[in-house]
Specification:
Distance between the termini: 45 Å
Low-confidence stretches: 1-11, 13-30
Number of helices: 1
Structural class: mainly beta
Number of strands: 8
Strand order of the largest sheet: 2-8-7-4-5
Strand content: 35-45%
Length: 147
């Protein structure tokens, strides 16, 4: 066993960044994959709107996927990751995209600090390009009080 250990979350974030940097190649005459829009938001507490969360208190990460014309994407999956500055990322989970174009997952910050929550969308086919997005959340320790 080597001394090198890499978490699944770190691999996913690095892979997502690499995939986004590569050009998408299409065969002659084939239609190009659509580049969807991915937006992330936090919900579940009054603090979520201010980009803040309470340590130990449940939050919901909501990824919203739309075509360029604004209509929802209704299939595929979203992988979610959490990364605390200076510490490798953690894989939070994989969620299917719902009929309204959203994918939701619960997240509980375990320590205070600046967290980056990332999401990577996969179509599972050739209709849509893979896309990634992120949002920042500052977790504060309120002594177990959830607001």
């Amino acid at each position: 066993m080597s001394g090198l250990a890499v978490s699944r979350g770190t691999v996913g974030v690095v892979l997502a960044a690499t995939l986004l940097a590569l050009p998408v190649a299409t065969a002659p005459g084939a239609s190009a994959a659509i580049a969807p829009n991915l937006a992330l938001a936090m919900s579940g507490s009054a603090l979520g709107l201010a980009g803040t969360a309470s340590v130990g208190c449940a939050q919901t990460v909501v990824a919203t996927l739309e075509r360029p014309d604004g209509t929802p994407i209704t299939h595929g999956t979203v992988d979610f990751f959490s990364n605390l500055s200076g510490i490798s990322g953690n894989f939070v989970g994989t969620v299917p995209v719902a009929a309204d174009g959203s994918a939701r997952i619960g997240w509980i910050p375990g320590v205070a600090g600046a967290h980056v929550i990332s999401a990577v969308y996969y179509d599972g086919g050739s209709d849509y390009q893979q896309v990634a997005g992120n949002t920042s959340v500052t977790a504060v320790n309120l002594g177990g009080v959830c607001v």
